Request: fold
Amino acid sequence: MTGPEAAGAGAPRPAGASAGGAQRPPLRREDVAHVADLARLALSEEELERFTVQLASVLDHAADVAALDLRDVEPTAHPLPVCNVLRADVPRPPLDRDEALAGAPEVEDHCFRVPRIVGEAP
Amino acid sequence: MSAGPSRTARQIAEGVRSGQLPARAVVDEALAAIAAGDGQVRSFVSVQADVAREQAEAVDRAVSTGADPGPLAGVPVALKDNLCTRGIPTTCGSRILEGWRPPYDATVVTRLREAGAVLVGKTNMDEFAMGSSTESSCFGPTRNPRDATKVPGGSSGGSAAAVAAGFVPLALGSDTGGSIRQPAALCGVVGMKPTYGLVSRYGLVAFASSLDQIGPFSSTVEDAALLFGVIAGHDPADSTSLPQPVDDVVAGLRAGVAGLRVGLCRELVDDVAPDVAARVHQAAAILGAGGAVVEEVSVPELRLGLSAYYLIAPAEASSNLARYDGVRYGLRVDAPDVAAMNTATRTAGFGDEVKRRIMLGTYALSAGYYDAYYGQAQRARTLVVRGFARAYERFDVLVGSTTPTTAFALGEKVDDPLAMYMSDVCTIPSNLAGHPAISVPFGTGTDGLPVGVQVLAPALGEAVLFRVAAALEAAAPASGAR
Reply:
């Protein structure tokens, strides 16, 4: 298991020793503001306050799992022993282009149109 | 309002197939019941009356020409609004998808149509299936048909309520941590989560992909088995779909429980409300009287399920819901650049519970916390799988409660997410393991509200699961205002 590492602006503070029996630091407002930013969500001051308390209570409950020594236990990502499923490569009619674009907020020349991505506004 | 359907799905299909019962009359009856009663229950977010009547007429034409109209001929079915329906709005109870019309049908929808079922409408749900009360829907809450001051459970609360109110004999929901079984228990109907991979997830809007599974709601165990038989089976469009054939679960339904080994699972009964626990003990006694060998069993690993689930499911959700970015479908809130547009759109489009889960998942996956939270949860998931494996060396099925309590009051838990999450504590372990489980109505609590007894089986144990459920149903005390 890797140790804690910084993650950009508003970085979470070191999580103590890596998994297994370590005491987790309490969740701070800055942590919630940071993950909200990563998840592209804007929070008001009131929401930041409320969500910090609520998320901290869920993480406190998860302390039972976080505290276990599970170094020798394999992780389960998926319940089935099925992997690398391939189907026959048979051509078939694709989804109609106009239909695929029909739900988009803005379309131009058969493409999804978005606001400016880089540079200054014109 | 809680009259229950006048006919079961099996009775309707038999009547329609024999030509004695017009499918058109059946669907008209369902539409009239919805029009009369759903103003109060609010189980549907949209009703497709014209489409339903056309489908019913097509079934009647098939019958009159001697063609096979399918095993669910003329049976009205409601669909949770996270199942894609071509050209019909599919909202997931979220503002961010309001008005979106999918360009394709979910595989289960195609299978239902091919089986002759008549799709009458889309049902209310917690936003993106995140919740246990159907209160996080952007459309507002659904009410429990047994008591309008109570929640119907969730997240598939609309589907459970639509069946409990007698609007339709069958409905589909999705179950990620109990979202079929918990509302079924709270509304007094049958709800079943299949083995992971038996029912295609193609066209089910993703919440937590390693846990999500589509399953049936009905008034009777036999109807649930019929619907399961129609929707289960391999689908090349879902890479997690199991390739093997599916057992016939209807044929052996009345075979009884003699000789079966039944484990009364202490972790699924010791901590629940005393009146609910009493019903589970009564159910175990009935199976014993039917010839099953019933013993208490402890699977302590199941106690890790809740914590593991509320790290794993939000982690998967935070990834799955990244697609709602205001570019390809649904809501867009304009802003000068793309990043600001993404943020403005997601901030306006998602409700509080979805935001909480996305942030929790993002946190559990973020640098410095990944091993401590997500990694630990995945390892705890392994322990849950091992605990079940040990129990199933000795038992064919486990029984316990579906929920810790009967239906709680509207608004009671909306400001306390952890208290809300606790209502999934008995259902979550089966999702983590990918196992099938079913909730069967079994009498009432001291408050007169329905109690659900849960039967759990190992992967692909559907035949024995339905058999035990049918035995419980046959001996169950009345579960409310039927």
User: Anything to note?
Assistant: The mean pLDDT of chain B is 96. The radius of gyration of chain B is 21 Å.
